[in-house]
Amino acid sequence: MKSEINFDSAHFWENPKVFAIGQEKPHANMFPYEDFSFSKENKKEYSSRFKSLNGLWYFKYSDRPDRRPSNFQKQSFDTSAWDQINVPANWELEGFGVPIYVNDRYPFPKNPPYIPHDDNPVGSYKKTFTVPDNWQGQQVFIHFGSVKSAAHFWINGQWIGYNQDSMTPIEFNITEHLIKGENTVAVEVYRWCDGSYLECQDFWRLSGIQREVYLFSRNAIYIQDYFVKADLTSDYNDGILDLNVSIQNTNNQLWNGTVECEIFDNNNDLFFTKTIGIQSTSENSLFSIKEHLPKPLKWTAETPNLYQFSLKLIDQEKNILEVIHSKIGFRKVEIMNAQLLINGKAITIKGVNRHEHDEVTGRVISEESMILDIKLMKQYNINAVRNSHYPNKARWYELCDEYGLYVIDEANIETHGMGSNYSTPYDTSVHPCNLSEWKSAHLDRVSRMFERTKNHPSIIIWSLGNEAGNGPNFKAAYQWIKSKDTTRPVQYEQAGDEENTDIVCPMYPTIEEIEKYAKKNPKRPFIMCEYAHAMGNSAGNLIDYWNLIQKYPTLQGGFIWDWVDQGIAAYTKEGEKYWKFGGDFGATHIPSDGNFCINGLLFPDRTPHPAIWEVKKCYQSINFKVIDLKKGIIEISNDFDFISLSDFHINWEVSSEEGNICSGLLKDLTIDAGYSSQFQIDYQFDLNPSIEYFLNLQAIFSKEDDKSIPFGHEVAKEQFLLQSPSRKESNDFFSEKELSISEIKESYQISGENFVIQISLATGLLTSFSYRGTQYIDEPMRPNFWRAPNDNDFGNTMPERTKIWRYAGQNHTLKDIKLVKQSKHQVIINTTLILPDVDCSFKMKYSITNNGVLSIDCYFEPGSMQLPELPRLGLYFKTNSSFTKIKWFGRGPFENYIDRKHAAHIGLYEKEVDHMSHDYISPQETGNREDTRKLILKNTNGAQLEISGSPKFSFSTLYYSPETLTQEKRGILHHIELQKENAVSVCLDHFQMGIGGIDSWGAFPLDKYRYSLDHYTFSFTLKASKTL
């Protein structure tokens, strides 16, 4: 009997040819309802045919297979002393074992198909249940949504099967194993198995029963599977219903009945019906329907029109045996002329990669979390998601159908630790993609993905897997899926431009590489399966990608890596929340890739990072162009693929440093997809030639009943410079009061009405600036060349490569200081600093006028030393912590950088210093604002310091210095480990290099966002005031 198998000798978990035993065949996601009314609700928990086994199970954790309890599956085995665990759950997050995060390597020694016998934890699960009385005489099945990674299953001590693919469902027919009264189900889960070699994805390595478990019942005759293709005719006007249904006859006796197919529209009106007579004499019977349906509403991500679809299985006495219900969408996916088309139109993929991740429960995902993700994606102009790198929870696909997202469904295959194309060289003789003994496992995972989700309109592309090499096994998988489904393309990044991918879908190509592809007359679409690695303070140069995507038709977008930081919520002893990453769980012997799992556009709790605003801007589908600014003529382009702009209006305003000057509204935007129209804005007012004016445009969603985007939500924006200010001569120094200058404590002290300024004779630095008794300089103002490395910097060795600049500003020596002008109106002092670390000089010309205005002209002059690029160039000082409010006229309100400022419009903003930084999970550069015209630091007593620059400057005002934010290695600190300083660190920058955004393991910021050694000149003006 099955229960007598010696599992130790069988070694199922080290045999690539053994991965699924005793299970039902994979099939479409469905539930057999007892009647039509229940099926329409699509709530299986309301059905009398459903019984949940979620909840507490008895659980025993064993650290290795030979220490697991034997014979625990027997009904007589006493588990009362065992722990209890939630199901679904990952046992490492329930206090058993250690969560492991590694990216592209295995957490065990690499020797496929073998797994260490002394380090392979086993979880033994057991639960009792009773079968409802009204299930008597029916077929009873048990469903496990996901079990990771390998598992044996028993009912009442009888072994019923085995499974490995950990991200697709497992179902067993347990009818013959049930007894009257109390039954037991037992599951033995191995953390690692040979299948783990196929699951080397960039995520937390977690274990256990991680999706729902339930029983369900069916009649002896039931619908085993169905494939409904809701296609369109070649002119895209009419629908084609192509339906294949499989009937299972467990009686193996002649059975006559009917299958009734019905389709209802959103108004619950019958759109189509057809009844087919069935005569079944065998275990499995097949039948099909193909019908032409006139003018259905079409499904796209912009117009997610769905129809209620049902299959009723009816016997000769007209009894409904079961009802299968789903929602279908009519749409056609094609590739023509090197473009991906939906319903005949080339689309643009504005996508993200998404792991299933919850900050508390790991890979146990709630419906509320899924809906939140989808709503946020839609609100940030994201229209597509790649299920990286495995099939997701079943409800996810239904929600993507309903809300409207394009989906790439991806098979649960990644062998990154064995090497992958375009990344890590590998030995083809041992790589699973090339070995015949692994072929069936590859095909099994691809087929299980396909069969479960084949009926979802949101899935427009199948993916064979991720970073798993390319060989005969993937070519066979490509041929298999193409033989089953001709309505969708298949992609595989590792295939490059080989025959087993319909789309060229690279990872992290450079700007130059994608333009090179576009120019070579390609035959296939180019859609980046991963790009713009969003680790930490990243997403630089996104606009550069999108300028090219909009230029070349074959470049159709891509999927940003990735959606959400994979941090695990934790709390300090004081109750402060933070997020753990790899290596934070105390087991030093376990491999870890640190904070490389922290690379999302959102925090783990779905709070956005600043980079997502740049994504929203680059992904917007309403765009603006100036035709004639003087006449107020602009062009509005509808870059949606399908919808008109009738549900949007445009808010416009003219603004300056003084705030909003005038505003208005453009309505009735009846612009069809792909078209543009010109509008005239009436902003008649007298422009002051000395003031800078901007025209700001916002596209606002004005539909009130949308499921994902709220009424009044901004979907697009643009800003145009309306007028540059004319240059005006300053007369600030003309005043009746006279300046005095003296030498006090080795400093020049310049005094005027209510102010005192000191410049050190020893260092040449500004050491004091007080006004009406308030001191503004707590630490001398010095040159600064260093920025705290971000994650991309660590990847391209910037901390080591540019370390020579780190202390160059501190380690200066004074070469010369001269008082070059002294009058009752003005004092000018020139200083020359030598920077011995870098063999450069830094000159400063201080000009103080008699009304307390201090101008500092800076001259950076390189020497003969060969030096790396400058991380930044500017001045740094500290002011006291009473200056808690910051006001500026420049880009904002969120942080922005030279290569990530497209979404940050110029305006007048005000924030607390506390809110000027972004608390990245692992500390790094933060808080910069570009293109600043004016900066004001204010305290609660009415004192303020106004700073302007020439040319425009960038700045940050933080409770952390660049040195405090600097880690010696990536990911060794968490934000909560930083101590806020009792001062405000102020960086006034001529420039700061770009943050980068191609990848986080080698790519530099684009050349145009880097600064090489050169002569640089810039200046700042400081003026203090105080409200009395």
Automatic annotation (TrEMBL):
SMART domains: Bgal_small_N (SM01038). The keyword Calcium applies. The keyword Hydrolase applies. Its EC number is 3.2.1.23. Signal peptide: none annotated. GO terms for biological process: lactose catabolic process. Monomer. Belongs to the glycosyl hydrolase 2 family. Its cofactor is Na(+); Ca(2+). GO terms for molecular function: beta-galactosidase activity; carbohydrate binding. This is Beta-galactosidase. GO terms for cellular component: beta-galactosidase complex. InterPro entries: B-gal_small/dom_5, Bact_Beta-galactosidase, Beta-gal/glucu_dom_sf, Gal_mutarotase_sf_dom, Galactose-bd-like_sf, GH, GH-type_carb-bd, Glyco_hydro_2. The lineage of its organism: Bacteria, Pseudomonadati, Bacteroidota, Flavobacteriia, Flavobacteriales. Gene3D superfamilies: 2.70.98.10, Galactose-binding domain-like, Glycosidases, Immunoglobulins. It catalyses: Hydrolysis of terminal non-reducing beta-D-galactose residues in beta-D-galactosides. Keywords: Calcium, Glycosidase, Hydrolase. Residues 749-1023 form the Beta galactosidase small chain/ domain.
